């Protein structure tokens, strides 16, 4: 446990040094989207008024997904590079699974901080530009945000250990981009009933469960996925990606 | 029980689609006693790094076992890792930390209390003569300095065994000598060291015992002096002669001459150079001189030398050591 906490401390120490650029990278996207979709498009009568309350939790889940994935993926590319910086961690008195879980936890904290910074920023901005107020149910939101952060980071570990670094640009275009578009960030999953059985195809996308979880916590009045399905999906993807990521991490580090 | 015990170690890397499996280590056994400076000498691809990897838990053996102080590295990797420290072949210092933080965080990973890790970091930075680099980022340091930071980092948790995988590769001669001094100092303090190298001189100067390794197998294990004595005859007599007919066959019949090799023309001393592996005894030089004269030859120059590790290596493997 000592080694685990020391590794976590090291990661948070390094991340805190880069706090300002990380914060800018985290907040730019949601703030601009809130400006465009919360103010400009409604004034042009191009989107419905309700859209404004739908996108706030969606943007929060996207922000967390990106922060969690990047929080694991970027350090991992250095770790697994030719110089093998990861060996210093592997040689610490800790199991390989312990190192992998530490990476997920560090990424999850990264995602959590990103989400909980983006949400108040969006709330303030939304109020200023469109007068719309959202009232999060913090007691529901906090644990759901924590699990969503773990899911994002575990997904980052899975991607980072399966995809060679030279393809990471492609990863954002081909994997993360589509996940965001079909991740129920800009529309509630319940509304997809209009598509018929196709609605259930969306459940293959882990971001759907994160978006619906945030919808439940941030805008409890907007219809959201039934909690049993939501929680099963969230925890199922956490277990799946932690398993896949940790297994691949061990294969990449121990010859 | 030796401090490090390697028994019937085998490592076969599985094949991929286009490449067949690689048998990197094919049944290696040796023991390293506490306080010993042990070397693995061999060409690139001989299996040295894989052997070190199996000892330090970064490579999982296909079969065989490795014990550190009786602790099996596969069955109990965490206990084994507390006992060993590694200076890897590639410089892998944590680039996001300062040099001093590299040391103190390493101490944290191993559970050292704050006061102790700070004190040790100070002492090791001074011992490695990098006390003014504590605040620098590792990538701004020279290769030799980074190497010393890696040794300081390895010593932070007070290991029983220090594993060094080709530590001087890529260093300039001055940095290499400085590193040798550092390693000798650690050995004198009683640390057990295992070093891999493809530099003969390094193995000869530092190691108390050497395993010469090629194609994943140990060819021989002994002290450098004993390895050199193990050559046929034990001494090398070089002679530079002028002769009408080849002298080799004639010289090889002399009592005390084990083998004769023609080394070729030598511009500086004139004449043909012959290398005689000899068992030096009474009257040997006299017998060689007479044989040359009897054949009508003229002797320009002689030199009697002790063989080097390189001669041993060539004798054992039949080839030059590839660097």
Describe this structure in words.
- The complex is a heterodimer of chains A (255) and B (323).
- Chain A is mostly helical.
- Chain A is 76% helix and 0% strand.
- Chain A is built from 10 helices and no strands.
- Chain A has helices spanning 2-17, 19-43, 51-79, 86-90, 96-130, 138-162, 168-181, 198-201, 206-218, 227-253.
- In chain A, helix 9 crosses helix 10.
- The two termini of chain A are 25 Å apart.
- Chain B is an alpha/beta fold.
- Chain B has 2 domains: 4-223, P-loop containing nucleotide triphosphate hydrolases (Rossmann fold, 3-Layer(aba) Sandwich); 232-306, MTH889-like domain (Alpha-Beta Plaits), CATH 3.30.70.1340.
- Chain B contains 11 helices and 14 strands.
- Chain B has helices spanning 48-55, 77-83, 99-109, 114-127, 143-155, 173-188, 200-206, 224-229, 248-251, 284-294, 309-317, and strands at residues 4-13, 22-32, 37-41, 63-68, 71-72, 84-87, 161-165, 192-197, 209-214, 217-222, 235-242, 257-265, 272-278, 298-305.
- In chain B, strand 1 (4-13) and strand 2 (22-32) form a beta hairpin.
- The two termini of chain B are 35 Å apart.
- The mean pLDDT of chain B is 86.
- Chains A and B meet through helix 1 and helix 4 of A and helix 2 and helix 3 of B.
């Amino acid at each position: 446990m000592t080694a685990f906490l020391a590794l976590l401390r090291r990661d948070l120490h390094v991340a805190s040094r880069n706090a300002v650029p990380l914060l800018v990278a985290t907040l730019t996207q949601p703030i601009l989207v809130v400006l465009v979709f919360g103010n400009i498009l409604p004034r042009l009568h191009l989107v419905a008024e309700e859209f404004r309350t739908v996108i706030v939790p969606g943007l929060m889940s996207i922000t967390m997904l990106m922060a969690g994935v990047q929080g694991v993926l970027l350090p991992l590319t250095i770790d697994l590079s030719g110089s093998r910086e990861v060996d210093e961690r592997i040689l610490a008195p800790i199991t390989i699974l312990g190192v992998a879980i530490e990476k997920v936890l560090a990424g999850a904290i990264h995602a959590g901080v990103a989400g909980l910074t983006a949400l108040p920023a969006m709330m303030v901005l939304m109020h200023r530009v469109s007068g719309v107020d959202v009232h999060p149910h913090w007691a529901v939101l906090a644990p759901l945000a924590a699990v969503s952060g773990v899911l994002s980071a575990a997904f980052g570990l899975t991607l980072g250990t399966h995809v060679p670094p030279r393809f990471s640009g492609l990863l954002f275009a081909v994997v993360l981009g589509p996940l965001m578009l079909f991740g129920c960030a800009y529309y509630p999953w319940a509304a997809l009933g209009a598509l018929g059985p196709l609605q259930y195809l969306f459940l293959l996308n882990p971001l759907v469960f994160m978006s619906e979880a945030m919808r439940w916590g941030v805008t409890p009045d907007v219809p959201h996925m039934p909690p049993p399905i939501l929680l099963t999906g969230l925890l199922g993807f956490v277990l799946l990606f932690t398993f896949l990521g940790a297994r691949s991490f061990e294969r990449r580090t121990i010859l | 029980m030796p401090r490090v015990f390697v028994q019937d170690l085998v490592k076969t890397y599985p094949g991929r689609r286009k490449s067949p499996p690689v048998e990197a280590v094919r049944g290696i056994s040796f023991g390293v006693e506490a306080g010993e400076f042990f070397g693995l000498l061999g060409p690139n691809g001989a299996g040295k790094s894989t052997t070190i990897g199996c000892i330090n838990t970064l490579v999982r053996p296909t079969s065989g076992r490795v014990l550190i102080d009786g602790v099996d590295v596969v069955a109990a990797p965490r206990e084994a890792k507390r006992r060993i420290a590694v200076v890897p072949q590639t410089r892998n210092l944590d680039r996001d930390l300062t040099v001093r933080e590299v040391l103190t965080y390493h101490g944290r990973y191993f559970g050292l209390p704050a006061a102790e890790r700070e004190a040790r970091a100070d002492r090791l930075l001074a011992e490695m003569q990098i006390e003014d680099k504590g605040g620098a980022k590792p990538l701004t340091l020279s290769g030799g300095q980074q190497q010393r930071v890696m040794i300081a980092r390895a010593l932070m948790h007070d290991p029983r065994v220090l594993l060094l995988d080709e530590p001087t590769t890529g260093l300039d001669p001055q940095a290499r000598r400085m590193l040798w001094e550092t390693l000798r100092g650690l050995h004198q303090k009683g640390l057990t060291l295992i070093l891999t190298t493809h530099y003969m001189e390094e193995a000869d100067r530092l190691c108390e015992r050497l395993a010469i390794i090629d194609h994943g197998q140990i060819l021989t294990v002994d002290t450098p002096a004993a390895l050199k004595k193990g050559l046929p005859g034990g001494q090398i007599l070089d002679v530079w002669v002028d002769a009408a007919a080849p002298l080799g066959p004639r010289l090889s019949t002399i009592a005390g001459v084990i083998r004769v090799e023609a080394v070729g023309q030598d511009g500086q001393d004139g004449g043909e150079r012959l290398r005689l592996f000899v068992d030096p005894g009474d009257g040997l030089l006299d017998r060689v001189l007479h044989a040359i004269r009897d054949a009508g030859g003229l002797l320009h120059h002689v030199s009697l030398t002790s063989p080097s590790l390189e001669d041993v290596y060539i004798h054992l493997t039949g080839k030059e050591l590839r660097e």
